[in-house]
């Protein structure tokens, strides 16, 4: 896998609470540090787009979904630990 | 988690006043008092035992082991909700995909796809795959709430089914969060006023594996699928129903092409009305033996007899008579097929097929071993409800095998079922062994006291032949003959023969015939004697007459002689006179 691979992540959050804002910031930082700017991170508020949540099979929030590369992976819960996020998504620098 | 205890587990202050009602029996449920709003399930019988259905606007838990019918129960609740009560619903499935679900319930005649298309039901398949989820730290199930809310709003749902929410437990590790989220979910359902069914897998020593009953404390229904002696019986029990009286027993239920039906099998006490209308049995001789010319409508009649005494023929005759009066009849036969019964009835001159074609007669033939006892009862209950017969035949009750107490309890409820509806019931019972006229204790399966009437058919063996006799052991509420009567079955039907009582009791068959012949000979002899005497008298009368005539003739002859002599005397006298005159004249002339 090269660094140029189109990593597409989608983060589902429930509402725009301060907590979810913090989390989004943390995640963006993780992505930048772990993957560089190539990663595409889309943030979806499940209240705004419930159909998208349904389509992605999301029941819990927050959920980070790796859309590509396949297979789809999900991480539910705390996303503040960069290492753990990257390991869960199997996108760590070591994996590249 | 501690096991559920109905006495204390629900001890919230708000429910205290209702605890009294838990101990009340079903029939004692007060109807005038304000009761909890209910969401009817439309499942026959279930709404009866719960006094109207599941609690409206609250979650109920349906639990049971695999294959006990939880999903079907829940689907029926939804489908009936939208089709019968105009309450659209949402089915949130955590296990089956919506296509599978639609296919599964299609066998019950539900067209889920159509209902989904019409916007009456929404199906949401929530797939939570353990393998692709990692979890860490805190999260909430807002997504699930949202999807549910979305689905509810899309059809304006009043009812929700969550099947089976326990799947979440295997998908998420952090149970503390999950539990608090579930609690929130059920709270949310209550707030929205949704009548909800949550299904749960039966766990060891508790109702559900994940203690769902802890959250859903309003109503818990347990489904069971028990195998006893290789026969499966489905049973249902309302374990708990906060704020409402309910039937507390285990009720058998059926799942078949007609959906689910639950049978409230305990009778409603002995409050059934009685009829004093008398209906003919179709056998003139038997009618005559009963003071009023037949049995009362709604009578439970027990027909016992050894093999070949014509129990089925008697029942067929009574069915035929009822059908000819335009009544509806049902025959539950357990040892013959319907065609066989029809054919056999033809041999005694009855055309049952005609009644079956006219829709007045229905046969339900099944091997006793096809279902468990409870299922038979359940099936009968449903069929009787659906067909609405005035006469039901169960032929024979002895076909039911099982522990005596169980058979008896089932039969008792069968009798009860018919009595409560004022249906005349004919129960045949096969007796084994002896041909004697003693009353067998075992042939009635302890039923005799339940029965209003009991006719016993027997074989009498005498003089190298077997003859059939019957007698009425009892007929409640009417005077009846105490005679033992012989009957014969022929093309013309069942006919009772005038009783012939000889010095050694009732004579039957050829003994009766020879006695008849003897008596006829004696009568003939008497007749001949009378004739002979009559002739003798006539002869003597003729002889006397003749004598009288002879005497009279002799007398007349004598009289004639006397008259003749008298005449001759007179003629001689006159001749003498003439001679004297002539002589005188002659003498005078000469002087």
Q: From the alpha-carbon coordinates, what is the Rg of chain A to the nearest angstrom? A: 13 Å
Total number of beta strands of chain B: 25
CATH architecture of the largest domain in chain B: 3-Layer(aba) Sandwich
Largest sheet of chain B: 9 strands, mixed
Please, what is the CATH homologous superfamily of chain A? Glutaredoxin
- For the record, the CATH architecture of chain A stands as 3-Layer(aba) Sandwich
Number of helices, counting only DSSP H or I runs of 4 residues or more of chain A: 3
Strand order within the widest beta sheet of chain A:
2-1-3-4
Unreliable stretches covering 5 or more consecutive residues of chain B: 1-32, 435-441
Largest sheet of chain A: 4 strands, mixed
Question: Which structural class do you get from the secondary structure elements of chain A?
Answer: alpha+beta
Distance between the termini of chain B: 191 Å
Q: What is the strand arrangement across the widest sheet of chain B?
A: 5-4-7-8-3-9-10-11-12
Order of helices and strands of chain A: EHEHEEH
Helix content of chain B: 25-40%
Count up the domains of chain B.
Answer: 2
Report the count of strand segments of chain A. Answer: 4
Largest interface: A-B, 29 and 25 residues
| Percentage beta strand of chain A | 15-25%
- Please identify which CATH superfamily of the largest domain in chain B we are dealing with: P-loop containing nucleotide triphosphate hydrolases
Keywords:
heterodimer; A: 96 residues; alpha+beta; disordered C terminus; B: 591 residues; alpha/beta; Rossmann fold; 2 domains; nine-stranded mixed β-sheet
Describe this structure in words.
The complex is a heterodimer of chains A (96) and B (591). Chain A has helices at 18-35, 50-55, 82-88; strands spanning 8-13, 40-45, 63-68, 73-77. Chain A has 96 residues and is α+β, with helices and mostly antiparallel strands. Chain A has a single domain, classed as Glutaredoxin, CATH 3.40.30.10. Chain A has a 4-stranded mixed beta sheet. The model of chain A is unreliable at 92-96 (pLDDT under 50). Chain B is an alpha/beta fold and 591 residues long. In chain B, the strands form 5 sheets. Chain B has a 9-stranded mixed beta sheet, with helices on both faces. In chain B, strands 17-16-18-19-15-20-21-22-23 form a 9-stranded mixed beta sheet, sandwiched between helices. A two-stranded antiparallel sheet of chain B has the order 1-2. Chain B is rod-shaped and about 205 Å long. Chain B has helices at 19-22, 46-49, 70-84, 98-106, 112-117, 142-155, 167-171, 175-191, 284-289, 311-324, 338-346, 352-357, 373-387, 404-420, 509-590; strands at residues 38-39, 54-55, 59-64, 89-93, 121-125, 133-136, 159-163, 195-201, 219-228, 231-241, 250-256, 259-262, 278-279, 295-296, 300-306, 329-333, 361-365, 391-395, 424-431, 453-462, 465-475, 485-490, 493-497, 501-502, 505-506. Chain B folds into 2 domains: 38-130 and 138-262, P-loop containing nucleotide triphosphate hydrolases (Rossmann fold), CATH 3.40.50; 278-499, 3-Layer(aba) Sandwich (Rossmann fold). The chains are: A alpha+beta (96), B alpha/beta (591). Chain A binds chain B through residues 12, 14-15, 46-47, 50-51, 53-54, 57-63, 71-81, 84, 88, and chain B through 124, 126-129, 132-144, 146-147, 149-150, 168, 172, 174.
